[in-house]
Amino acid sequence: MRVMGVDPGLTRCGLSMVVGGTGRQLSMLQVDVVRTPPEMELAQRLLRVADAAEAWMDTHEPEVVAIERVFSQHNVRTAMATAQAGGVIALAAARRQIPVHFHTPSQVKAAVTGNGSADKAQVTAMVTRILGLAVAPKPADAADALALAICHCWRAPMLERMAKAEAMAERQRRMYEERLAQQRKAVIR
User: Which BP terms from GO are recorded (predicted)?
Assistant: First the structure.
């Protein structure tokens, strides 16, 4: 599975490409951080982020894009900017028919470190170890983008099994309701 991990942001947007092999084997193809200056107009900053993400998608052809879900932040402006950056990337993926999955920061931390409240240093250390990198990815946005891709590679099989189980349960519920309706009709006659 080829996963593009995205740590969205306007000032720094982390982009990564990870390939998942058999089991939990992973390898990094590329990681980078797109930067936009704060004094630049918002629309132009979003365009720069979207252009970079689209170039990555066209070059690496990911099977899925994993984006950090904006969960809660104390600074509303930062949360809005993060959500907007994630939104333009999700839109770029949707235009290419690439599935998009959102993961919360605690889901990513738990998947990578085993602790949903791990700090950035722990995440970076585990990303470095998991991917067998000689040097820790910097800045933290790069490590976070890699962590998102790793999280998705490891969570995707479980998410797929859950979706199949939910679909099967829904089919069985409908069949049961149809049988009940038929039995009620038979009793009324």
Answer: DNA recombination; DNA repair
Q: What is the pTM of this model?
A: 0.83
Is 68 labelled as part of a ligand binding site?
yes
24-81: pLDDT as tens digits: 789 999 999 999 999 999 999 999 999 999 999 999 999 999 999 986 667 788 888 8
Q: Which of 154, 141, 119, 127 is nearest to 25 (CA)?
A: 154
Going by their DSSP bridges, the two strands 26-35 and 2-7 should be labelled as unpaired
Domain spans of the chain, in order of start:
2-164
φ and ψ at residue 188, rounded to 5 degrees: -65, -35
What is the third-level CATH fold of 2-164? Nucleotidyltransferase; domain 5 (3.30.420)
Which residues neighbour 2 within 8 Å (Cβ) at sequence distance 6 or greater? 17, 18, 19, 20, 29, 60, 61, 62, 63, 64
